[in-house]
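Q: How would the structure tokens look for this protein?
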Amino acid sequence: MTSTVSAFLDDISTRDGLNAARGHIGRLGEERAYPALVALAAELEARQASTPAEGRKRLHALSDHLEEVLAKAGDVDSALALLEVARQPRDARYQGRLFAARREQELAALLATHRPVTSFVELLSSRQGPEDLLELFACGVHEFVLRGADLSSAPGVLALQAELARRGHPLAALPLQRRRWESSFGRLMGTEEIDAYDTLGERLSSASHEDEEDEYTTPDIRLATQDEPVPAALAAVLVSEDGEGPHDAIEQRVLKLRPALPKAPSDTMTSLLIDLGLPLMKDAAFVVCERDKLSRVADFFFSRVASRARGWLGAAYGRLALWRTLEALGGIEVSWAGDAPEKRWNACTWYQFKGSWQGERPDILGVVCLRPGGTSLALVAVRERASFW
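A: Here is the predicted structure in token form.
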């Protein structure tokens, strides 16, 4: 096998040679030659050390293609072969800042994209001990949940969650079924069609007051604000623990309000945002703020971490970061197992806002959560950067 593998890998320095190698991998998949593909994956990685830097990307491209071929094959043996490949380490120069755990996250997304949830649940029984591919399956659970699967009664998944909880794994806290306000996340992950009218800028530029029917007119009063400590997780959905995210382009504030502003109308919140003089929005020519729904606030955040291109946090950890940010915005610390978070979040009044300038300066997009009773609010804003988002 090794000599055959070496023969067709020797010629990948050209485009034609690379395409021929991809075709060879595809044919092996069609022939269900899965042991050969597992061996080929190992050979590709073995060649990394002796391959010049400019050629390593081609090896990595072939490794990616091989994993995709196995994921798409559809039968049990191909799935088991993909798990064998997952147990083989990828070259450290490939992993870089992504590290090994991120590779398992990406393989989980690959499985969820091309396999039914029943196949994934069956694969749980093929783990080779408590440490084996733990991250892949932990992330895979939420890849499928966010695609609409209800895993709250699947025995293998419940056993996995119990194991994750014993280990203090952060994903163990997330529910095993999608909440109603998470129902559009499949679109944001690229598994469903995306509505043309679905961006914050578009909604705010032609916003209506359909969600403000219950608003009252705020009396002409002088509003006093007092800064409160900012929870550590307020921008969790925008800044990851491993250093990714636009640190220098984030605004976070928690304010006490006197007097209270229960269900403040959008005009009042717009004036407050202007008066706050947020550094990110200094001298903004236009500030637009509109009432919004929890589901669309969640879409705004989730789209930035688990986009069609998988995003920079990925679906599972993107969901975790979103829940942490919503928890901090709502001013709660509760168990996520029941419906307590939703009750609190539904009692909050949500707004999205946009600050913009004439010219090339990037827009500022943000969320305000007016907490129940209107005695305090939390906000988080980010500078829109095409290079990051």
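The two ends are 44 Å apart (CA to CA).

The domain at 202-383 is CATH 3.40.1000 (Protein Transport Mog1p; Chain A).

Upvote if useful.
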